[in-house]
Every structure is written in C-alpha cells, then in structure tokens.
Amino acid sequence: MSQKPAKLPRTDMPCQAPAKRITNFDEVALGYTDEMAAAEASRCLQCKKPLCRQGCPVEVRIPEFIAEVVKGDLCAAYDIIKTTNSLPAVCGRVCPQEKQCEGECILAKKGESVAIGRLERYVADKALCSNIVPGKVIPKSPEIKVACIGSGPASLTCGGYLAARGATVTMFEGLHEPGGVLVYGIPNFRLPKDVVCQELNNLKAQNVDIKTNWVGGTTVTVDSLFEEGYKAIFVGVGAGLPYFLDVPGENLIGVFSANEYLTRANLGRSYNFPDYDTPNYAGQSVTVFGAGNVAMDAARTAKRMGAETVNIVYRRSRAEMPARHEEIEHAFEEGVNLLELSAPIRFEGTEAGRLCSVKLHKMELGEPDESGRRSPRKVEGSEFDLPTDLAIIALGTRPNPLFIDATPALNLNKKGYIVVDQESGETSIPNVFAGGDIVTGAATVILAMGAGRKAATVIAERFLGEIK
Ligand code: FAD
Ligand code: SF4
C-alpha cells in the first residue's frame, strides 16, 4: 500500500559536497530534478484553509501552484506564483521559509513541512530557462513617469509592478550594478548572479530604464524629479551603513565591516583578483562577529577565500542564532566554528598596525529581554585571546544619510528610518513613497518586496486608474 503524503519524508535538496564547494563560488544547493519536485509536491495536503499562505508576507497561492506542479503544468504554476511574487527564483533561495510559509505548514506541526521554497525555486528556474513570460502586457503610458531611487528588491518590485501596468519607470541606482543586496551582499554560492541578472532583464524587457551611478540626494533629488515631470517617487535605498563593535583596536588593518568585505567579494569580484581589479584581503585566522545571514555569508566567503580557520563569535548560544537554518548548517558543514556565549573586549595589533588577535570574554544567558530572547551577561574573569588576522563585523546596519540628509521634508523615526503611512507606504512628502529596509530597518527580501508592491498598488490606483 502506498504511503500517505504526510508520512512521506521531505525530499532532500542535492548540494555540492562541502570539501568541493569551499574551493569555488558556485551555488551550493543544486535544485530539484523533475522527479524530486514531483515527489515533494505530492506531499502537499491541499488544505482548504492553507496556513502556509498566511505565513507568506506576499501570500503566494501556495497549494494552487503546488497542485500545478503535481499536474506538470509549470507555466500555470509560474503564472500563479507571479501574481503575488515578482522574484520567485530569488525568494525560493533566500526567504527564511522556516519562519514564514513552511513554519505554518500543517505538516510542520508533527514532522517536516512541505519544501515550499525549494518548489518555488524549481518552478521559477524552469520558467527562467524557458523564457516563460507571465501575465498580459499593458501598453505604456509615457505621460505617467515614476522614479525609483535604489534598485534592491523593494524598488525592483515597485518598478516591475508599475511598468507591467503601463507606467514609464526609471530606476536610479547609486552603485555601478543594479540589484541592491541581491548583488552586492548575498554571495553567488547562495544566490547566483545570473538568476538576479535574468530578473533584471525581465524588468528591462518591460521598458524599465535602470540608470546606474546615479546617487539620490546628489545627482538626482526629489525636487529635480518632480520638476522633470515625475508623478511619483519610490524610495528604496535600503539601510547599508554598518554598525561597529565600538571596542579598542577596531581601526587596525585587517578589521572590516561585513558590508565592505562582502561588497569587495561580490560586486568587486575580489575572489577573481587579478582578473578583476579589487584586491582580496586574505586572512588565515578569520573571526566573524554576529550570527545572522550576513555573518554566515561573510564566514563562508572567508572560507572560500582560503582561510584555514573561521570562527563565528556570538554572545548568545546556537539556539538564538537568527540566520536561516540552512545557512547555519551549510556553514558548519564547511568547517566554520562557532564560539558561542563569547564577546569581544579589544583587538590587538602588531607594531605595523596589523590585527593579530582579539581578546574575548565568556557570557552567560540571563532573563529574557524585550525581544523575548534571554539576555547575555559577562562572566567575570573569563577573558581569553583568539589569534586573528582578519576580523569581520556583522552586527547590523542603519540608514545611509546621503539621500535622507538631502531631503529634510521627510519625517524620520528616532532611529533615522523613514516614517510612512502603514496603509499606503506614502511618506510625509505627497507622492513620495518608501519601503524596504529604509523603513523597517534590516529585514528580509520578501518584506522589502511586499512594501514595494504595496506602494506600487497605491501609485497605480492614483495615477494609472485615470487612463482608460
Ligand atoms: P537593498 O537591497 O539594500 O537595496 C538598496 C539599493 O539602493 C542598493 O542597491 C543601494 O546601492 C541603493 N542606494 C542606497 N542609497 C542610494 C542613493 N542615495 N541613491 C541611489 N541608490 C542608492 N534577506 C533574506 O530574506 N534572506 C537572506 O538570506 C538574506 N541574506 C542577506 C545577506 C546579506 C549579506 C545582507 C546584507 C542582507 C541579507 N538579507 C537577507 C536582507 C535583505 O537582503 C534586505 O532586507 C533587502 O535586500 C532589502 O531590500 P531593499 O530594496 O530595501 O534594499
Ligand atoms: Fe515562502 Fe518566501 Fe515563497 Fe512566500 S515568497 S511562499 S515566504 S518562499
């Protein structure tokens, strides 16, 4: 007798072997075959009231698209996903599914959830390979010009939605390549750049004009855009200014913010030096501070750059690490070590000013703080030294002042993030909208996309509704 779907084990994702993958920057997770996808899709119970959908910030119609995978109609599956998610090949790879759709899957209550993210990636990859273009194309309305400042997932979603509805969209990106964190932050081994590139090409095919090396607040401003006839502006500039530890010795040669380290590797292709011009700062004993996705990406990049030892220093314990589960597991498989319940006191350097070690102390967990996590406190007399020639600080980010300082009419909250109307995403300046990390603080790709879509819906209703 065949097993009930709920009893079938979750289908594993084939991956590059750890010993091999630390020698290259190719994608680690290799994707489902047709047979694997069919097997995994058949586990879905097709719940009448799907909780997984409620767990997804953009409410992808999950059981419906999975039913099409079971039937083998991938065009239909892709069409269904694209009605609410404009970057499924990205989300299928990087969403923290265990806290979102898969966390709510009824199968997760008693065993293993359906691998929704992996199925979403499978459908999207198939569609990108076969150039399936979903949805109908609406004629352009040259008189309705919309500007997006920044080109991360928030702007890409906002711009894509409006272009598909006929607006003339121009995107202004400060860096020399568009894509935001998808390009400069998340490494190729987790999110291949050709996947992002294909999504960008889809936008360009919708006539979105992406201008790079344009900095909002200097080369282009809110006032100049309105003077040029733009009807609405979406601000999706992210929050890319790093926090530091604020301990002595942080200015030694060899101490990097994760932003700089990852941008050099990903955007500057330092791993391909000298084929590319960005030099790689190679460390043999690398210490990474932090335990989120950014810390995992930095640690795994250092390993691939040839480090002998990579330690992650975290003041809480493994159970509290906020990174995606899969990234934590992959990092440990690759030989990254965790020094949990540890925190830095100071960095120490050579006479030449180069980092050579970091002094740490042990921590213990006390009562839960306002975030619900047990707060760490210092264990007196527990100091120890860790030899280190490269330190990477991944403690989070805050807003970059470039655009904000040049736009004083924007209302900001106490932490410097842009305040928006919750329903519309509109800022204190009429017809200027904002979304993504610049509003929420560092969050997730899918939340940034949800914010871009919300603002785009309001912009479309306000300006495109009148063109019939
Ligand atoms: P961003 O992606 O930051 O894009 C903003 C863009 O605006 C950038 O291209 C920037 O150059 C540009 N810009 C900034 N200022 C200006 C200006 N003045 N003028 C013009 N352009 C400007 N989330 C997940 O869901 N899963 C993950 O696995 C994950 N991993 C991550 C790993 C790393 C290393 C990092 C840094 C973040 C990660 N995140 C992850 C978080 C996620 O990437 C962000 O929440 C998301 O990218 C925010 O999107 P955004 O569009 O608001 O901004
Ligand atoms: Fe899950 Fe993210 Fe896809 Fe939503 S977009 S279904 S949360 S993987």
Topology of helices and strands:
Blueprint: H1 18-21, H2 34-41, H3 51-55, H4 62-71, H5 74-82, H6 88-94, H7 101-104, H8 106-110, H9 116-129, E1 141-149, H10 153-164, E2 167-172, H11 181-184, H12 193-205, E3 209-211, H13 222-227, E4 230-235, E5 241-242, E6 255-257, H14 258-266, E7 285-289, H15 293-304, E8 309-313, H16 325-333, E9 337-339, E10 342-349, E11 355-368, E12 374-378, E13 384-387, E14 390-393, E15 397-398, H17 401-405, E16 432-434, H18 437-440, H19 445-464
Parallel strand pairs: 1-2, 1-4, 2-3, 4-16, 6-14, 7-8, 7-14, 8-9
Antiparallel strand pairs: 5-15, 10-11, 11-12, 11-13
The protein binds flavin-adenine dinucleotide and iron/sulfur cluster.
Flavin-adenine dinucleotide is lined by residues 94-96, 149-155, 172-175, 180-181, 185-186, 215-217, 236-238, 240, 262, 293-294, 297, 324, 400, 402-403, 436-438, 442-446, 448.
Structural features, described:
It is a single chain. This protein is of the alpha/beta class and 468 residues long. It has 3 domains: 125 residues, Fumarate Reductase Iron-sulfur Protein, Chain B, domain 2; 166 residues, FAD/NAD(P)-binding domain (3-Layer(bba) Sandwich), CATH 3.50.50.60; 152 residues, FAD/NAD(P)-binding domain. It has 19 helices and 16 strands. α2 packs across α4 and α5 packs across α9. The longest helix has 20 residues. The protein is globular. The termini are far apart. The relative contact order is 0.13. The structure holds flavin-adenine dinucleotide and iron/sulfur cluster (SF4).
